[in-house]
Design goal:
This protein is an alpha/beta fold. The chain has 6 helices and 14 strands. Helix 1 runs parallel beside helix 2.
Length: 264
């Protein structure tokens, strides 16, 4: 008997969409770059079993920006799950991004794996924090499900070596680690926010940051700076026994970025 095929997950993050599809972030039309990412996904064989969207899906926090995202995702006919970032409005997301195949559920099981999506965004702040309610809920989910687990949130729980980003990462990482250290089934933690690739092990858990579908931030930079790397996304192949493999894919997207920008 052939072994079961691994579950194929695509992580898309930091789309920063606007109400208008032609609007640009630092010289890059974010709708155009997202469309290029999704076109790349559509060419994959086999197709992803599901998409994970890990926050900062909107840039202007408008209802229209989420409808734009909805219109992009619907033709894929792939289950989509999402969580908010610091640029998002969760209440509006719940209204727009809650029709099949897009789900507002924050825990689910597929392919022998358990998925838990956390909200690390704090209203009115750029940095992140997990509430005591979120941490208690996470513990309940891990107690109830011993299967291999993938956790996702928006803010990185580690310094990444860029001073300006490290000031706005997850502010209570120790509280998260205190929960995760009690549950050996946690294999992977995914996040966005940093607009670059990141790979770090802590104990037996692998923490992965993923490039944005739009502009990229220059690694190891004391101050805000753009990178010349192309937009991208992450693919993960999850085996039912808890083994996995992962890689980042980049797309070909040509635009005149504003490399002199000091923020956005």
């Amino acid at each position: 008997m052939l072994p079961p095929s691994p579950l194929l997950i695509a992580q898309i993050t930091d789309t920063h969409l606007f109400a208008g599809k032609s609007q640009e972030l630092l010289g890059l039309p974010t709708a155009k770059s997202l469309n290029a990412v999704l076109s790349c996904l559509q060419k994959l064989q086999p197709q992803p079993d599901l998409l994970l969207l890990t926050g900062d899906l909107s840039q202007d926090e408008t209802v229209e920006s989420y409808y734009c995202l909805y219109q992009f995702l619907l033709p894929l006919k792939i289950p989509v799950y999402w969580l908010p970032g610091n640029h998002d409005v969760p209440s509006v997301m719940e209204q727009v991004l809650n029709t099949a195949p897009i789900s507002a559920e924050k825990t689910f099981q597929r392919g022998g794996w358990n998925f838990v999506l956390l909200n690390s965004a704090v209203s009115g702040r750029v940095d992140g924090k997990l509430s005591s309610q979120s941490l208690n809920w996470l513990e309940q989910q891990l107690q109830a499900n011993p299967h291999p687990t993938l956790l996702a949130l928006h803010h990185p729980p580690f310094p990444i070596g860029s001073n300006w980003i490290d000031e706005i990462n997850l502010q209570n990482s120790a509280d998260l680690f205190a929960v995760l250290d009690r549950y050996s089934q946690v294999k992977l933690v995914l996040f966005g926010h940093i607009h670059q690739e990141f790979d770090h092990w802590r104990h037996s858990v692998r923490y992965l940051g993923t490039p944005s579908t739009c502009v990229q931030f220059k690694p190891n930079s004391a101050n805000f700076a753009l990178d010349q790397l192309k937009p991208g996304f992450r693919l993960l192949y999850l085996d039912p026994d808890g083994n996995y493999s992962t890689r980042v894919e980049r797309i070909d997207c040509v635009n005149q970025l504003d490399f002199a920008a000091t923020g956005y």
